[in-house]
Design goal:
The chain is α+β, with helices and mostly antiparallel strands. The protein is built from eight helices and nine strands. It has a domain of 148 residues: Aminopeptidase. The protein has a nine-stranded mixed sheet with strand order 7-8-6-5-4-3-2-1-9, sandwiched between helices. The structure holds coenzyme A (COA).
């Protein structure tokens, strides 16, 4: 009789990360969230500076969600939905470009247009920064902002990111080449920033590929 190998549960998927702030929480997206992501990111204002979007079919957010477990496993992307207790999912924030040796990661976020200027961005950034610095061992967060995306630049500066310069031709979206402002926040600066004052709790098991602290590099 053929034996079927037991499926070993992956701890970071069976005990997923959940990050809680005073009002909002971060959790992984599931396929049930696809219609909501579709609604939020069919707005061209939201995706104007991104390599993707706006969404035009439901299959696009479905494909995004389906790709996430493998990206968590490989260390490519650790994305979360930003969830409001009344409104449900309102956007996405996450970490990418993890460099274990240098203990750094890049943070990126977007919110549905309705939640711009609501304070949600600050809380979402406080949650993802606490996860990075407190739990994963990150020592530096980088953030990119298109040179034409003044709103994103102001948002990063307001929460304590330091403008470090402009990288010409840094991002390519299809045939279009974009100059970006590079922002950085070191762990010590995070501790002095408004993000650090936000009460954040972290539950669950991080994907090992994103653990960049000393224990992870042994
Ligand atoms: C980038 C993004 C996440 C920033 O969020 P945001 O809410 O627009 O920006 P801020 O957090 O700086 O908040 C903006 C305004 O809300 C105000 N605000 C902040 N907290 C607030 C609160 N608790 N209550 C009310 N207003 C608040 C700020 O004072 C600011 O006002 P001002 O613009 O008049 O100075 C959002 O604009 C977005 O999703 N943009 C599209 C995607 C994108 O470009 N992402 C970045 C890629 S690099």
């Amino acid at each position: 009789m053929d034996s079927i190998a037991p499926v070993t549960p992956v701890p970071h998927e069976s005990d997923p990360l959940v990050v809680r702030g005073p009002r909002l929480m971060l959790r992984y997206a599931t396929l049930e969230d696809a219609p909501r992501l579709f609604d939020l990111a069919t707005d061209p204002a939201v995706t104007r500076f991104f390599s993707w979007g706006p969404y035009t079919t439901i299959e696009q957010p479905e494909a995004y969600i389906n790709a996430q477990p493998a990206k968590r496993e490989s260390g490519e992307i650790l994305d979360f939905l930003v969830v409001d207790p009344d409104d449900g999912p309102i956007g996405v924030t996450g970490l990418a470009e993890i460099a274990k040796r240098d203990r750094r990661a890049t943070v990126g976020s977007w919110l549905g247009h309705r939640w711009w200027g609501s304070g949600a961005n600050v809380e979402a950034k406080a949650m993802i920064a606490a996860l990075a610095f407190r739990r994963l061992g990150v020592e530096r967060l980088t953030a990119w902002a298109n040179t034409r995306n003044g709103r994103s630049q102001r948002a990063l500066e307001r929460i304590g990111f330091r403008r470090e310069g402009v990288l010409n031709g840094w991002h390519r979206h299809g045939d279009q080449v974009h100059d970006v402002v590079v922002y950085g926040m070191l762990a010590a600066a995070w501790e002095r920033s408004p993000l650090h004052a936000v009460d954040v709790t972290i539950e669950g098991t991080p994907p090992p590929a994103f653990m960049v602290g000393p224990a992870a590099s042994q």
